[in-house]
Structure formats: C-alpha cells, structure tokens
Amino acid sequence: MRRLLFLLLLPALLLSGSVLALDDPSLATPAAQYLQLIRDGRDPAGQPAATLIQQAEQQVRQKNWTDAIATYETAIAAAGQTATWLALSQVWQTRAEQQTQADDSEAVNRSQDRARQAAWNALQAARAPLERARTLFRLGDLYDRAKEPKLTIAAWREALELEDNPRIAKRYQELAEANAFQIKGVAVESDSAARTICLYFSDDLAKGRQLHYEDYLVIQPTVPITVSAQEQQLCIEGVRHGQSYTIKARPGIPSAAGDKTRAAQEFTAKVE
User: Which of 54, 197, 251, 270 is the 20 to 30 Å CA partner of 28?
Assistant: First the structure.
C-alpha cells in the first residue's frame, strides 16, 4: 500500500523538487508586484475568464494590443491560468516589437519587462510538467532575446528534461558550449607570505567540506600543496619561489550553479 502511494505521489514530488531549479530573484519580485497590480486594478465584474479570453483573442486578431493586454489582465484577475499568462506575455512582446519600430526605448523596455514578468507568473501557475515546459521554453526565449545566456541555459535545461524540442535543443547546445564552466586563466599571487598560484574560473566554484579540489589537480614538479576555493578562484599554496609549475586540471570541477568543467585544461606559471 505504501509503495502504491509513493508511486502515485512520485510525479508531484519530482515536479515540486524542480520548481526551484530556475532561480531569478531579480524577476520574481517585479513579477509578484505585477500580479498584485492586476489583482488590485482589474475587476472582471462577474465575467467568466473564458469569455474575457475570447475577447482578448479577438482584440489580438485586430492588433489592438492595448485592449488585449487589459482584457487578458482582467481574465487573470478572474482566474489566473498558465495559458492566459503566456498569451499575455506574447502580447507584451509583440507590443515591444511595435514600439521598437517607433523608436520608443523607454516603452520598449517596459513592455519587455512585462513580457518576462508575465512569463514568470505563468511558471508559478504551472502545475503539469508539460505546462511547466511551455513556460520554461517561453522564459528561455525571452532571456535569450535579452542576451542573458546563463538564465537561458537554466530555463531550457529544465524544459528539455520535460519535453523535447529540436529547435531549442540546438540553440541550447550552442549556448551551453559558448558559456561552459571553465578555467579562464592563471595568476601568481606573490604579495602574501605564502606564495600561491590561482586558477580563475568563469563562475563561482561549489562549496562544501566534502569537496577535495586537490583531487582535480596534477602539479609538476610535485610538491606538497594546500588547495582552497573562494568564489571564482582556486588557489594552490606550497609552491616555491623561482620555480615554474605545470598545472593540469582534470574535468569535472563543480561550479556553484551545478555545472562542471567538461575538459582537462593545462597551465604553466612561474613563481617570481
């Protein structure tokens, strides 16, 4: 009986665990404010959400973007649903594109912000995995337009786990390769009492006592070393003045965001 109950609850548990996979506090707060603005300012006056959605769809066909936005917002006040939020996000984006042609940068920025906020609220309303995938595909597209590759990758990575999309999978792979977690360079720190060689990464390193970063490094010539990680740098203590070292970093070094270095990298540094 317990096993049956667990199997029945498993999809919900998996979904609830993934809810926190995409984290964007800079969007979550204004999106929540936008939702409250709709609740405070739009009164459906007893009209069913379905009727309001039909009206909004007709206004979209007429390219009456202002009225369509107002009607979709009113439908959300009546019964906020994922599909309605996504439709509202699309209308805001279309309006932004129209405003771009009019060279109204302030209005464009506001419309683009609203498009992202509506998509974020769609994500919060999503319950079924395919609903969540749709909202993540939408958010990823908006992040990509805004040239925010890390957020684009995070959104699409989760979405592609829920639903296949060859077009997005191709773009995701391009972004993932171009923005892969990797070592960007090496520097010798000789100002401190203990001279160190530091490797600089493209993102913050993972933290945790269970991590032994020395296991990922091979240094030649061999010397006893101490390795410490802080933010985006991995520093090696125990090196000697006047000596040149070759440092080989094995693949698999973890980032704070959950990524790992994909390939081995090799650097040479001389301690002056």
Answer: 54
